[in-house]
């Protein structure tokens, strides 16, 4: 009788189905995706607490720079000086080397930029060209504010039959996810501010190196300076 009971129990145990490895793998992946989505939604909801700059204040700084300067170089120096006096280094790190310019190719447009600030949730740069350029704005994970300092920028979205035109002192605001074609005419420079998730924007700024320019020295310099500024800000708790 004992032998029969043991055999019966062994038979019941062996007939119990066990989850297959592929099933466990896909279950784990599903849980990971759901948790990642929840985490991203939560972070997106609180990201504004890490913002330091204010779009309206930056607009006033840009207009003040135009009113107090005779040229773009003077306007840039005024902007950097004003920001340095307004925001303490314990709160945000700024790159005050106004000679640290580099080429930037993105979306088919080419110009030069100077990175004033770069962190995980914000960046502030001077971008422009004395020659003129045009291209695709990219579709980004941040709101973008383009404060014109010199020259004129034109932009349009699909369905618009006439372009919007932005001159010195005006701002071209692009909400997150917006896509536009834009053109910067000869001698156009702007203060550009982005607030949102900055790292996902970087591939757009790097892609033309691999598909067109093959200018890996500029890419290296751009990555080095961007990471340097992000790390400097992370070290003081600026996300």
UniProtKB/TrEMBL annotation:
This protein is called what? C-8 sterol isomerase
Pathway linked to the protein: Steroid metabolism; ergosterol biosynthesis
Principal localization?
endoplasmic reticulum
Q: Which portions of the sequence form the region Disordered?
A: 1-20
Q: Where is the composition biased (Polar residues)?
A: 1-10
Localization (cell): Endoplasmic reticulum membrane
User: Recorded E.C. number(s)?
Assistant: 5.-.-.-
């Amino acid at each position: 009788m004992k032998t029969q009971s043991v055999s019966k129990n062994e038979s019941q145990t062996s007939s119990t189905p066990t989850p297959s490895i592929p099933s466990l793998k896909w279950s784990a992946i599903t849980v990971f995706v759901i948790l990642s989505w929840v985490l991203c939604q939560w972070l997106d909801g609180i990201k504004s607490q890490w913002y330091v700059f204010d779009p309206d204040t930056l607009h006033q700084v840009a207009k003040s720079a135009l009113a107090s300067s005779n040229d773009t170089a003077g306007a840039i120096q005024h902007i950097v000086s004003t920001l340095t006096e307004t925001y303490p280094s314990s709160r945000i790190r700024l790159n005050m080397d106004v000679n640290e310019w580099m080429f930037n190719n993105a979306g088919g447009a080419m110009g030069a930029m100077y990175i004033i600030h770069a962190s995980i949730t914000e960046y502030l740069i001077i971008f422009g060209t004395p020659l003129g350029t045009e291209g695709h704005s990219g579709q980004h994970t941040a709101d973008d504010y383009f404060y014109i300092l010199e020259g004129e920028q034109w932009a349009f979205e699909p369905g618009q039959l006439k372009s919007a035109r932005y001159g010195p002192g005006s701002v071209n605001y692009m909400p997150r996810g917006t896509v536009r074609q834009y053109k910067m005419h000869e001698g156009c420079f702007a203060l550009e501010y982005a607030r949102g998730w900055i790292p996902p924007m970087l591939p757009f700024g790097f892609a033309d190196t691999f598909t067109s320019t093959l200018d890996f020295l500029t890419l290296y310099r751009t990555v080095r300076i961007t990471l340097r500024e992000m790390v400097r800000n992370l070290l003081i708790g600026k996300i």
